[in-house]
Amino acid sequence: MVCFLLPDRTKGGRHENQENSGSSGEWRVTQGESHARLSRYVLSLTLATLVSGGLLSPESRTYALSGDEALGQLYRNARFWMNRGDLVRATEFWTRILHLRPNDPRALTNLGIVAAQGGDLKKANILLDRLSRSHPGDPGIEKIRSAILLGKLDVKWLLLARKERKEQHFSAAYQDYERYLKGSPPRGGLALEVLQTESAVPDHFRNAVRGLRQLAARHPESHRIRLVLARTLINREDTRREGLELLSVLSRSPLADVSGEARASWRTALIWLHARPVDRKLYKAYLARYPQDIVVRRLLSRIPKSDERGNGFYFLSKNRLLQANKSFQRALLADPSDKEAAWGLAIVLMKQKRFQETAEILSWIRSGQALRPEQSSLFREAVYDEDLVRSRQFLHERDVSEARTILATLIKNRPDRPEAVGLMGESYRRENRADRALNRKAERDPHPFLAVLDRIRPENLDRARSWLWSKRDGDTMTVFSRRVFLSSGSGHFPFLIRLRYVAYKFKIGLFLLVAGAILFLTIRADRVLTETMYRRLTDDKGEEPS
């Protein structure tokens, strides 16, 4: 067995009775204390026994060079387990401290609090009396008294509150904490517990943060309280940046559990943050410590280096396309790799009907990363519309063959878009073959006119009318003209709706009668037109155009 000789005089130090203590391990030893009269040899022998017997943690053995340093390590171990909430392990270390240093005020205080919280009020009162006699006026006296007072309260509310808190029923848990405390202010670990719960209660966040700040101010050396404060702050966008700054400091804590939790919360808050250009430094600070984090690095790459990108999307939401275009271009000048700014510019160009440029930008985005669903959809629309513009240009130049080649591809690849069908019909109309074009389409549906009309957008209705005009007799054309005139795309159907509204509003029966008659004739016209078109198609024996 190895003995450690102590120096002639123990080092003086300060005594604090706080929730979380410092880690200096040096304590004041007064001459009035009885243990000062013990043989230093006996004390050294006791410490050596603790170390060799494994009663101290492996870390403690590195500090067992003197009695004060060994006691300091015991203090740190006790505080560690108190912070972790393991009161059994903490009690073991406080008891060892009392064996080495009888009437130690901090050990007496914490043992008294633990006893009161465990319901052993008799033991708590004994420790309170012992502390009062050995250290009158010590702050720990009031702490033990408060713990005893709380220990007399109805514990069932505390147990129920903790159960509801675990189940994330925070409002109910907070109410049960209030029932348990009965107006008494929470102290110690319970204060931290109650304030954490209160922060999750609607409309109580500010009050909870205020309480946590006050608790941290009373215990400035408590890493655990500061961690709880920081993790509470990151739950709201307006306080998240303050929480990030605090977590970056706590990630360097010498307490392994605190530093680990701080790093995890730091990363989570960066993911939650609605980052602005000024926030890039927050991400860079994290990556300076943890450069291997791919997720945070990707988030940093998406943050614009200026506010122009955000301005661009703002103008775009207001449909102010010129301002949006300029903002996105300035953002790309500041950062040519900003794909989000490029995406915004593509939307603007699409709205300006600059389809080729839109497709080129989206192709560039696709070369570096997979397109998102909305980007893929816009890319398909841009390609379709650009090919439609090219086919119109070929028709204008009377290159019908090239136009039909493009249109046939569009009809095959995008059956959901009717513009190519309409333009193909236009190409046949120019050759006086409009009937054949309609017949070719109508063969796929028993109601040929309705099938064609439903696939033609309102702006193409005039073309559809001109197709039929070239080959139809007067009666049939009259019916068709009425149908086109009253269609939703012609501009006259909304007039009928307004007419019905006027009739209803002003109780004018004549208008109502007229509107009803027109609508009735419209429905009848649809039926007559369908029958006429079907007979015409049946009689048509000509060949389809190639």
UniProtKB/TrEMBL annotation:
<feature type="region of interest" description="Disordered">
    <location>
        <begin position="9"/>
        <end position="29"/>
    </location>
</feature>
<dbReference type="Pfam" id="PF13432">
    <property type="entry name" value="TPR_16"/>
</dbReference>
<feature type="compositionally biased region" description="Basic and acidic residues">
    <location>
        <begin position="9"/>
        <end position="18"/>
    </location>
</feature>
<feature type="transmembrane region" description="Helical">
    <location>
        <begin position="504"/>
        <end position="523"/>
    </location>
</feature>
<keyword id="KW-0472">Membrane</keyword>
<dbReference type="InterPro" id="IPR011990">
    <property type="entry name" value="TPR-like_helical_dom_sf"/>
</dbReference>
<protein>
    <submittedName>
        <fullName>Putative cellulose synthase operon protein C</fullName>
    </submittedName>
</protein>
<keyword id="KW-1133">Transmembrane helix</keyword>
<keyword id="KW-0812">Transmembrane</keyword>
